[in-house]
Every structure is written in structure tokens, then in C-alpha cells.
Amino acid sequence: MADPLLDIRNLKIEATVYPPGEKPQDITIVHGVSVSVEKGKVLGLIGESGAGKSTIGLSAMAYGRGGVRITGGEVMVNGRDILKIGAGGLRKLRGHEVTYVAQSAAASFNPAKKLMEQVIETTLRHGLASRDEAEKRAVMLFGKLGLPNPETFGDRYPHQVSGGQLQRAMTAMALCPKPDLVIFDEPTTALDVTTQIDVLAAIKEAIQDTGVAALYITHDLAVVAQVADHIMVLRHGKKVEYGDTRQIIEAPRQDYTRALVSVRSIEHEEKQPTADPVLRVENVTARYRGTAFDVLKNISVELHPGQTLAVVGESGSGKSTLARAITGLLPPSRGRITFAGRELSAEQTARSRDDLRELQMIYQMADTAMNPRHTVGTIIGRPLEFYFGLKGEEKRKRVQELLDEIEMGKGFLDRYPAELSGGQKQRVCIARSLAAKPKMIICDEVTSALDPLVADGILKLLLDLQKIENVAYLFITHDLATVRAIADSIAVMYRGEVVRYGPKSDVLAPPFDAYTDLLLSSVPEMKLGWLEEVIAGRRMESAGN
Amino acid sequence: MHPILKLVIQRLALGLLLLLAISAVIFLGVEALPGDTAQAILGQSATPQALANLREQMGLNDPALTRYFHWLGGVVTGDLGKSLTNGTDIATAIGQRLGNTLFLAGCAAVIAVPLALTLGLIAARYAGKWPDKLISAVTLTTISLPEFVAAYFVIYLLTQVFPIFQPVAMVFPGMGFWAKLNAVALPVIVLVMVVLAHMMRMTRAAILNVMQSAYIETAELKGVPPMQVIWRHAFPNAIAPIVQVVVLNLAYLVVGVVVVEVVFGYNALGQYLVDHVTKRDLPVVQAVGLVFAAVYIGLNIFADVVAIIANPRLRHPK
């Protein structure tokens, strides 16, 4: 057998961390991992955040992000150790033999330069083709990746095209210099599920057509199952399991892999609507100041006490705007919002203290929703003080009760947010909203920034708390798996309208409207060949029309 | 209408409005000064009758508002009035000295701006390493020296130790371009020393700020050499803050260099202003103040427009 294209042997990577109040420490983030990719094959690297998958991926270009250093092992590309070829040698390797597709193409394109300029930059720099030839190849790749008007697409600036298009353009940029290996670092994670499927299909087709090898990094096993030949599961910078894709998906050997495969184990019995909804939104229409179109169009939904209404839709569908309208941050131009039997005034500033107290919010980024200079005790204690006038020992006792409720023990009272994990931060935010004894909590993408297993823990906690406190959730999410797990009723939003609304069992059962069908069928399933099935199905449909 | 053209017109209109407001402030400020223009002209020994006559003749007895609009009308039509001390036409005097001022400022800017940008780019490229530290140390030293100290130091070095230039920067009408250039060499060197550090530091900071962006990592992962990353990928996105600081320094070169003018005996606007402040020649002070304000506003509008044009989101709307 010939040498593999990429052969990483016993890789060790260290970083320096600066824990608050302590001396800087060197920590090992990758512990002797070996990875190899053969010509024309796709290897999926999968794991939760902190597993070291991006770090390993970037090591194939001998690049350390931030203060990350490669301290041991060999990285063989095309038969030579690239850790020993120096800065000049690396510049020849990067953008020629190995190229990179980043998670956020929107941030990874230079806003001041035209797309074509950036796509062909390396091809010209490495002297691989003349400008004419490079532009021709770029246009060919734009077409292959399904970009609109491939001939003129390159004349645009990054801000003039959509996120999904930028992600495809970045793939074109990576493929333009005819590399041997492309590193895809979570290329579809930031996209809507309906966009993700198209980009995923485009990437897969481009990989197959060009015969390039790839490292595909993601936290979503269902996604990587569609494109990879082999999969390596990583955790805490160590290899957990390696095998071909079928074996990993269908017969995982390790417990951790099994947990990843069977994630979303939550069972939730749908509850029947009660007589008096806690929240009633009637014909609400709203627009942002200074704009000429409605971002919410005639929205009517209800939420019953102790139940969960999931609002689902892609970015820009108006689901977070609905939350802003309900909380009074964006006063509706028409319509009525009734909460706990009383009509809410449109302006948040005109609402009574009880209105504010009984309607709480939890956000996607727990990080930015907490004052980094307050301790957990202060953060949770603030609403107790503010709404109930609790002080001293009484307050401390209540904070501890709340901490117990969110399954965090004694030691957390005096810790700062920076000392908590992502899941713990979100739990503290939940405790803070519960402290106000709300009737309803708006949860805005509260699990989107979390790893699947951690997110699962948060969802379970929310459901348990709902049983104890009888609190209602308005749960905003783009993730249909989450919706299945926790909703009692569902509102599907698209371009500012509710296109489908009802009890979960009705909404998720056929016959579907066109958009809901598209949305549901776009959610990656953990089985081989799913992507081809869906794409083929859609092509048949459009051919039949 | 193209949004950029609209923004430029908006800025220009705002600038004119601002200039109008400033003219009022200048007039009020001069008005609030104690003393009497007629008294200042005729001196302590003037008879009451002569004073009254002169006041009547100059319109000093009119209400302030009338005099303001009279003055403003003159300004708009290019008539800045006559100097009280020597009766010459102020517009002519300013015109000549403004030419000298702009010549000196222009020469300093042509050297200082490219030099500061280049040094800033180099400092950013080698951030934290010795070239960065050397550049920072040298420019900070030169900015820390008071202008007159730097001026005397330069005079000593370049006229006594190495007698290359003459110590006095005399220019007069009819002088050839090269002779003029030779004459202003020393003040230009001093001014470059004074303005270099500020622009260099801002360039460095703006570039380093942009260097944190994801697209810089993309460029590095494309194998682009470091200096090219800075020049081609970082610099176009750092133009706006750099231009703001460059323009502030240009404005300083026009309106703030009186000390250097005095040291080198250079006959320009700053010296003209100071001379007439000491003589309480208020029409001249008013006129020069207005010219300085116009320079400041004009340069800042220029910076705004450059910052707008440098932003592709405004240049190419969706």
C-alpha cells in the first residue's frame, strides 16, 4: 500500500491557559493522537467542543490557533514532515497542497475585497495558473457548487451574498488551487438546516468530482455520516474510536460513541391545552423603526400554563422578534398580547413590576447574559432582592435552594462565570429566571451554543423544573430534534408568518405544507445514504412538477 | 442618487452649518473681550470727540447683531475688512501667508504621512519584537521633545555640526520652488518629528486590531507572506481610523505650528495671528480664527468621506 497522503503520528499539542487569579499554566490539549488520510478519502473528525478536533485539523497545516503549540509527534504530508520545513516551506504547503474551509465563511472572507480576488489569490500566488485560467476554474467551481450566476458571482463583495453562498464560495476557494487535502472545519454548523443540506450536498459532490481528500470536522455525527468514508471519535484530546462510517453509526463499540449516536433520549408526553392560556398573542404585527416591511405578520399563538410552545424556523423568520414583541422591547404596531389574564402594555417601560417578574427570559449566549464580575450568588440573588426584598441569610438560603434545583452543588455560590463550563453557565441563567417565580420563561435558542450531550442535560432539567414549578416555556429554536423532545405545541415560522401551528402531534404529522415538509426533511438523520435519498427525492419532485 | 454622493453632500452641508456656528462663536468671543477698538486705534491720549467720531465711522455704535451680519456678509463676499494697526486689506495679507503655511504643512505631510504609515506597518508586522520597540522608542522620543527644543537641536546639528542648511527659513514672493524647499528644510524636519509618532501608533494599533479577524487567519492559511497579509488584507480594513488621525495631524500642521514658525522666522499664518493678538487687532484675529476653523472642518470632512469610501458596504450596497 502506498503512503497515506496525510499521516499524523503521535501528535501532542499544548496551550497556555490563564485561569483567573492563578499563574499561567501549560495544558496538553491533544494527547498523542494519530490520524491518517489516504488520497481521495474523507475522514470525519467528531467530538464535542474541547475534544481537540479543530486543533488536530489545523495541525495538518502546522498551524496553531491562538497560543496553541505543537510539541510532539510528526505531521507527514506527501511523505515529508511539515513540522520541519520552516516558514517558507509552510507557505508553499498552505493554500496549495492543503487548504482550509472555516466554520464562519462570513467572517473568513476579507470584507474589503471582491470574492474572485480572494478565491484565486492562492492559485496566482503559487504560480499554478494564469489569471485567466484561474478565473475560469473559479467560475467552473462556482457553477459546480450551485452558486447563482457563476460568471458574475466573483464580482461581488462578501456582504452582498448570503451566508450559505459564502460557505460555498469558501469551498470553491479551497478547491481552486487543486489541493491534495481540504480541511473542512464545521463548514455547515452556522447555517440553517434548510441551507445546510444544499451546502452539504454541494461539498460532497465537489469532493467526489475533484477526487480531493478531506478532513471533515464537525460535532454532528449525522452530518459527518453523509460525507465521510471513515470516522474518528475524539474526546478530551484523545482518540475514543476509529472505524469506517457504517461501523461507527451502526455498531459503535465505545460507550461514548453510543451516547453520541443515541443522543436525544428524552421522552416527553404531550400535554392537552387547558382552559386559560397564560399567554395569548392575537394578530400581532410589528416592524422595526425606520423600515418599510413587517417582520411579524398577524401572529396569533397561545401558551398554556405548565406547557411548552416551540417556535421554530430558520434565521430571519422572525422567531426572536416575536420574543421581543412579547417582552415589549419591540412594541407591535397592531394586535394584542394578554398575559396571565391581563393585557400587557406594548411598551416594556410601561409594564408593572409583576408583569416583568412573571415573564422571564433565558438567552442563547449565557456568557454575555451574566456580569463577569459578579459571583453566581450575586447573579441569582439579584432578582430575589429586586422583586422580593430578600436580604442576608434569607437570600443566601434561597439562592442555595435554587442551585440545588438546577443540580449544582454547594461550592458554586462564590464562583465567577468564567470558572463555569458552558452548561453550568446556562444552568445559572435558568436559576436566575426561576428566582423571580415566573409564570412563563422565554427560552431563546438556549441550547444552540452547547454540545449535544450538555444540551440534553439542560433540556431534561427544563422539563423537570416545568413539572415542579408549573412554568410555561416559549421555546425558540431552529433545531427540530429539540422541538420533538420538549414541545407540547409548535408554531412553525417563515418570513414573519406562522405557517403551521397546533399541538405537536398534529404539526409533526402529515400532510405537511411545503415549508414544513422542507424543514423536516432537511434535518440530517443518523443513517448512511440519507443525503442522497433526500436530494434524489427533491429532484424527482421538481421534475414531476 | 448614489448613497455615497448623498453622504458627501450631507457632510458638506453639515460642515457649512458648523462653520456658520463657529463664526458666531468667534464673533461673540471677540465681542466679549474688554476694551474698545476705537480706543485701541487712537491710543490713551485720544480726545472724547475723536473717539466718538471714529466709533460712528466704524459702525461700532450699531447693535452687535447688525455688526455680526455686516461682518458675515463681508466674509461671504471675500472682504475680511482692514487691519486696525496698519490699514492693509486682511484678505490679501492672509492669502499670502496662507500660501506659506500650506507650503510648509504640505512639505511636512508629504514626508510624514507615508513614513508614519510605513513605520506603523513594520511595527505591526514585528509587534513585540525589536523593530517594533525601536520604532516606538524613537518616535515617542521625538514626540516627547517640546517643539522649540527639537527645533534648536535640529538647528545646532544641521547648521553648526553639519553645516548643510541655513538656520532661518526666510521665504519671500518670487522665490524659486527649490530655493523655497531648501529654506523650509529645517522646520519640515522638526514638524515631521512632531507628528510622526501619533500617526505611526494609530496605524500600528488599527492594523493589530484588524489582525485579530478571522479573515487574517484565512490569509495565513492560504500561505500569504506576513507583510502581504498586512498590506493586502489588513490595511484596507484599517483605513478609516488611520485617516482620522492623519487628518488631525494635518490640521495641526496648518493651524498649530506657531512655535516652529517663530523659531525659524518663517512668515506664515500662525505668526501673523499671534502678532495681531498682542496688538489687539480684532478684525485680523476674527478672520484668521475663521480660516483655521474652515481648515479643521474641511480636513475632517475629507477624513469622513475617505472612511465612507473605504467601506465596501457603503460603496457597494446590496
TrEMBL record, chain A:
Organism: Albidovulum denitrificans
The ABC transporter domain, residue ranges: 11-261, 279-520
Highest taxon, organism lineage: Bacteria
Upper classification of the organism: Bacteria, Pseudomonadati, Pseudomonadota, Alphaproteobacteria, Rhodobacterales
UniProt-recorded Gene Ontology molecular function terms: ATP binding; ATP hydrolysis activity
One Gene Ontology cellular component: plasma membrane
Subcellular location: Cell inner membrane
Gene Ontology BP annotations: peptide transport; transmembrane transport
Pfam families (alphabetical): ABC_tran, oligo_HPY
InterPro entries on file: AAA+_ATPase (IPR003593), ABC_transp_ATP-bind (IPR050319), ABC_transporter-like_ATP-bd (IPR003439), ABC_transporter-like_CS (IPR017871), Oligopep_ABC_C (IPR013563), P-loop_NTPase (IPR027417)
PROSITE patterns the record matches: ABC_TRANSPORTER_1, ABC_TRANSPORTER_2
Membrane topology annotation: Peripheral membrane protein
The protein's name in its UniProt record: Peptide/nickel transport system ATP-binding protein
Database matches in SMART domains: AAA (SM00382)
Main location: membrane
Keywords: ATP-binding, Nucleotide-binding, Transport
UniProtKB/TrEMBL annotation, chain B:
Swiss-Prot/TrEMBL GO biological process terms: transmembrane transport
Membrane topology field: Multi-pass membrane protein
Subcellular location: Cell membrane
Listed Pfam families: BPD_transp_1, BPD_transp_1_N
Segments crossing the lipid bilayer: 12-30, 102-122, 134-157, 177-197, 242-264, 284-310
Cellular component aspect of the GO annotation: plasma membrane
Keywords assigned: Cell membrane, Membrane, Transmembrane, Transmembrane helix, Transport
PROSITE patterns: ABC_TM1
ABC transmembrane type-1 domain span: 98-303
Domain of life where this protein originates: Bacteria
Annotated family: Belongs to the binding-protein-dependent transport system permease family.
Protein name, entry field: Peptide/nickel transport system permease protein
Organism of origin: Albidovulum denitrificans
Species classification: Bacteria, Pseudomonadati, Pseudomonadota, Alphaproteobacteria, Rhodobacterales
